[in-house]
Every structure is written in C-alpha cells, then in structure tokens.
Amino acid sequence: MIEDGDRVRNEKGQALVEFILIVPVLALFILGMFDVGNIIYKKYQLENQLDYVVDLYVGGKNTDIQSYLYKEKITMNTTMDNSYTTITLSKEISFVTPGASKLFGSAYSIEAERTIASES
Predict the structure, then answer these.
(1) In angstroms, rounded to a whole number, what is the distance separating the alpha carbons of residues 28 and 99?
(2) Phi/psi class of residue 2: alpha, beta or left (left: φ > 0; alpha: ψ in -120 to 50)?
(3) pTM: predicted TM-score of the whole model, two decimal places
(4) Which phi and psi (to 5°) does residue 116 adopt?
(5) 85 three-state secondary structure
(6) Partners of 109 in the beta sheet?
(7) Which band of pLDDT confidence, cut at 50, 70 and 90, is reported for residue 73?
(8) Is the distance from CB of 78 to CB of 65 less than 8 angstroms?
(9) 3-state secondary structure of 82
(10) What are the backbone dihedrals phi and psi of residue 41, each rounded to the nearest 5 degrees, phi first?
(11) What is the dihedral of CA 114, 61, 48, 75, to 10 degrees?
C-alpha cells in the first residue's frame, strides 16, 4: 500500500529528472539568443563602420581605409559600374553556442553594402 508521503517523494524525484532533462535545452536556447543578439549588434556596428569607410572613400583617403579595415578585421570589396561604385564590407563573427559552429560553419559572415555615385 502506497501512503501519501511516498507519493510526494516520488513526484519530487520525477520533477528533478525533468529539470535535469530540460536544463541543457534551455541553456542552448539562451546561448542561441545571445548569438542572434550578437549578430544583430555586429550588423548594426558594421553599418556604422560602412558610413565611416564611405566618407573616407569619398575623401580619397585610401591608406586610412586600409589601416582601419585591418584594425577592425573587416574585408572590403568595391565594384564600379558606369557612374556608380558599390562598397561592400564583410566581417566574420564566431558563435558562442556550443555546436553551432558544426551546424553553420566556424564563423558567420555579415555584410553591409552601399552604392554611391562615382565622380566623373
């Protein structure tokens, strides 16, 4: 015969097992949210850095651009099409979440692009 005290003890053990099963999933979810937030923040930063690089490009300060890009670990690609120049900045972001690098590669690449009118 099971008494009420035994029933409570069994339910506490069940709650502990459920908690142990849920904690890793919850931890991965929270770390994944950090990764998504980090990607959004870094994308915003890259957009601001693109403004700065475009200002330097328009001013003709190519050596300042190269030193800035090297310092910030950013790659730049420019394409010219008739009267327009497209400047694309890209940067690699590493993941915090364990196992995310196996799913998505070692790093995630973000890009920011701006098209400006070329001077004739």
Answers:
(1) 9
(2) beta
(3) 0.76
(4) -125, 160
(5) strand
(6) 92
(7) very high
(8) no
(9) coil
(10) -65, -45
(11) 70
